[in-house]
Amino acid sequence: MTGAEALSHAVARLRQAGIPDAPRDARRLLAHVLNIDPGRLTLILPDPVADAVLPVLDIALDRRVAREPVSHITGRRAFYGRDFIVTPDVLDPRPETETLIAAALACPFSRVLDLGTGSGCILLTLLAERSDAAGLGTDLSAAALDVARANAGALGVMRAEFTQSDWFADVSGVYDLIVSNPPYIAECEMATLAPELSHEPQGALTDGADGLSAYRAIALGVQGHLAEGGRLLVEIGASQAADVRRIFAEVGLETVAIHPDLDGRDRVVEARRCPGGR
Question: What is the value of pTM for the model shown?
Fold first, then answer.
């Protein structure tokens, strides 16, 4: 069987199972089992593939048919131009979160705190882009922190530290930039989500309540750790901008901007601790 025939087989399996964007996923899975970069796949499609490849490909296809995310099958996910290790212990880095990265990089910073760091993709990307900055990532999950540390090592970002903490509980010091992509999906919305999300840590997706609990917790602790004039950037659900703005205003934070993602949906709230503010 040639690479092209193997790819055709993979696309057919995924389409029959109703997998969205089956050709894209088939290419990624075939490249994975061939241990090549997906960008090189076209070059080898005319060539025969080893007999041993096909059973491995079928196992990967079985997992995708069961709606396991491609990233969990390959163990990698691209984010802001870099590859990150992912496991079922962390959320997949998503393109929407790159909105937060772009907003954070628009102004200088030297010390970053990433609350609920997960894979570490936000903190490590910011530090990789700003070689003079250092930062701390926190997470309640020890398993997630192991993934974040592995990503720091793989990317060679040694200016990142990680600690287990429930929001600010075990955090000390003051930061000029605090970022977070917290669990913001309301419990009542969980049943409507794509089946792939059942493979991700549920505590990183939902607060089990109205989707705003994390913002309240962040607001309660932020003033003790955000420098005067410092910025707080949080990812939000598309309908949460007004609620998060109100929660932050109640503790004296000024909302600087609501940043939309590439689809035009509200995605990031940027707030600031005004000099002399409480």
Answer: 0.94
Residue of 161, 181, 164 lying closest to 234 (CA atoms): 181
Q: Does domain 88-273 have CATH number 3.40.50.970?
A: no
Triad 247, 252, 258: Cα angle to 5°: 55
**What ranges make up the beta strands (E) of the chain?**
76-79, 82-85, 111-115, 134-139, 160-164, 175-180, 226-235, 253-260, 266-273
The residues spanned by each domain of the chain are: 3-66, 88-273
How does pLDDT run across 127-178, given as a tens digit for each residue?
Answer: 999 999 999 999 999 999 999 999 999 999 999 999 999 999 999 999 999 9
Gap between the Cα atoms of 100 and 232, Å rounded: 10
Q: Would you say 224 and 273 are in contact if contact means Cβ atoms under 8 Å apart?
A: no
Residue with token string 């990183």: 204
DSSP 67-122: T--HHHHHTEEEETTEEEE--TTSPPP-GGGHHHHHHHHTS--SEEEEET-TTSHH
